[in-house]
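FORM 7B: Structural annotation worksheet

SECTION A. Query
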Amino acid sequence: MASMITPLRVVCIGCGSRAQTYTQLAIRRPHQFQIVAGADPVPDRVERIRRLANHPEFQSFDRAEALLATRPAADLAIVATQDEFHYAHARGALEAGYHLLLEKPIATRLDQVLEIERLAQRQDRRVLVCFVLRFAAFYRKAKEIIDSGALGEVMSIQASEGVMPWHQAHSFVRGHWAVVAKSSPMILSKCCHDTDIVHWLVGRRCRRIASFGSLEWFRPERAPASAPARCTDGCPVGDTCPYNALRYTTDQRVPWLGMVYDRARDATTEDIAAWLRTSPWGRCVYRCDNDAVDRQVLAFEFEGGITGTFTMTAFEHGRHLEVYGTRGVLKCGETYRNHFGAHLILFPHEGEPVRYTVQAEDGGYELHGGGDAGLVHALYAEITKPPGAPLEAGLDSTVHSHVMTFAAETARVTGQTVDLGVYSWGDSRS
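SECTION B. Predicted structure
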């Protein structure tokens, strides 16, 4: 059967870590995908995609705009650039006639999200958003249990994401998403996965949102006495500080350094230390220009009166989920996986608990990382579905998840509860 399939020709707009992850998974399915072009301002990244693609007519570009102007013959564009470029590159790819595998978020402004939805409809193009949790074995099992009726009617849902202290420091203090004006709010850049998964699991549209959160720990006044601007400048508490940037040369080299330093694989300890002396990732975490929150809480009300909460915190590791129903409660996540020998446990209101374990598509991590494999596994069938068939993570549902996220940030900033019926179509959408 595989020989009768016409492979989808794929171009990569942005050739960093996310595109490389999807490409590595796609080339395992040569009967479904051919990688024919890549664009990135960093030549080494394009070269990695070219080597992975192993396609004799692969085209390399130094800018997304150059690729879009040339319009290589292809069916699908992977848009995996930095958040602030998603709108322009998604728009250009749709206008070039490509279907999209679009890294989240769709865009960093709600009016742009809605414009991508309208343009995809006008161009009759399919857009699959990289909400990989929908494709992770863990969340698919949770969805299966909820939809089976084993919990009865869902009354409330509670979700949380522990970003992890080092991840927070790497990405949201020192890194690309540290300054909201240059990227997007934390709830969008990191946690739109979570607003989406709550929306998807509940299966109802959200009506109202309230939110609270701020930046409290990674601030100048929290810096140890005499701490210098950079960890490479001889910090007096460097040996005990959990955020010492010199850990990029030791236990935090994998995987974090490779995400921001293209020579990470081959660089010596001295090379990395020299890079840290001028790199944003060498700064003291208490002396950066960051303003992204380090914890935030959301409260939801969904259609039908279902209530929910979501907590993001830098000071925990992994995702957790509890779903409360009229017949039982589902509890699951990293703690259950690591300490109780099951990914998910159903506690009926009457009867014995039922334990579930799950397996990722590629045999690896069952949660976020496993979702990458699940997404690519589903990608060909999703893009080649019959006309009018909804996608597993298409714009018809993921746009509402984005509306929830933007509304949550508005609620946090204003201190008001936001009515989504007004917000999503009113003046506040931009």
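SECTION C. Observations
The two ends are 48 Å apart (CA to CA). Residues 425-430 have pLDDT under 50 and may be disordered.

SECTION D. Sign-off
Analyst initials: ____
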